[in-house]
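Propose amino acids for all 276 sites.
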């Protein structure tokens, strides 16, 4: 709808919410989260009876359903806002699906059905990537970028709540989106989704001198490195890796800002000053 009619952000968000509700109503949700420090946090303890159909009651599981809604919406808008460079989203989706594929075939996980879904999505996104890599011949658009985030979010839920694994793969992109939302809301006092700018991490990489392909390959490399750790690390190790990921993001952002400022101050450079 948005790709065809150019909807306002307030109307764009209706369809992702409806997609999330379809998943939640169908019974797919995050009922528990494994505590990396030990134990399990259950989210299905508070249930509210909504209706009864055919003698079967239907419950709204407060924390589980809300968590699933926030998770799916977060994943969709991560891929939506990440879709600024040719091949970036489709490539990261391919990497994520391959990691989930191999993780699902692990003896401890043993989920061949989930592995099949993951490799199907990997094949679809990789087939698209062939024509979407720079210079792109086809583009995801809003429908494509939102859909890939939606599928990754659902896949991470049905694969045994592999939230930490998906966070490791998409962590750089998720942290970038969080920073963009915080900056627009609290520093620029404007809607985080109503405007576009060149202050995302992938655009910062272009500003410091990387080519389009180099920026995409660099972000793919980071996603692959952190994604591979999910195949070997468990519990506390994943938590430590997530902390390292956040530190990498902060350090990378600081380096990019400093390099860009020095580049603008170089003799003979008449470019516009850096706008935070």
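Proposal:
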């Amino acid at each position: 709808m948005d790709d065809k009619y150019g909807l306002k952000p307030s109307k764009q968000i209706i369809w992702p919410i409806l997609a999330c509700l379809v998943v939640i109503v169908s019974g797919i949700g995050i009922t528990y989260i494994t505590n990396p420090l030990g134990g399990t946090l259950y989210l299905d303890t508070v249930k509210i009876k909504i209706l009864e159909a055919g003698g079967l009651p239907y419950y709204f599981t407060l924390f589980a359903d809300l968590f699933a809604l926030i998770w799916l919406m977060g994943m969709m808008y991560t891929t939506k806002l990440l879709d600024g460079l040719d091949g970036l989203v489709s490539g990261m989706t391919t990497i994520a699906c391959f990691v989930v594929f191999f993780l699902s075939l692990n003896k401890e996980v043993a989920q061949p059905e989930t592995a099949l879904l993951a490799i199907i999505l990997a094949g679809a996104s990789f087939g698209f990537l062939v024509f979407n890599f720079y210079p792109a011949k086809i583009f995801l658009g809003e429908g494509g970028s939102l859909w890939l985030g939606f599928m990754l979010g659902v896949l991470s839920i049905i694969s045994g709540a592999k939230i930490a694994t998906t966070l490791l793969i998409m962590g750089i992109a998720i942290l970038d989106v969080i920073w963009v939302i915080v900056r627009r809301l609290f520093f620029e006092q404007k809607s985080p989704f109503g405007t576009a700018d060149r202050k995302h991490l992938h655009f910062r990489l272009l500003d410091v001198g990387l080519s389009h392909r180099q920026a995409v390959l660099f972000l793919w490399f980071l996603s692959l490195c952190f994604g591979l750790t999910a195949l070997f690390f468990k519990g506390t190790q994943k938590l430590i890796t997530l902390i390292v990921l956040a530190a990498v993001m902060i350090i990378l952002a600081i380096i990019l800002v400093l390099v860009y400022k020095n580049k603008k101050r170089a003799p003979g450079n008449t470019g516009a000053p850096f706008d935070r």
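The longest strand covers residues 47-53. The longest helix spans residues 236-265.
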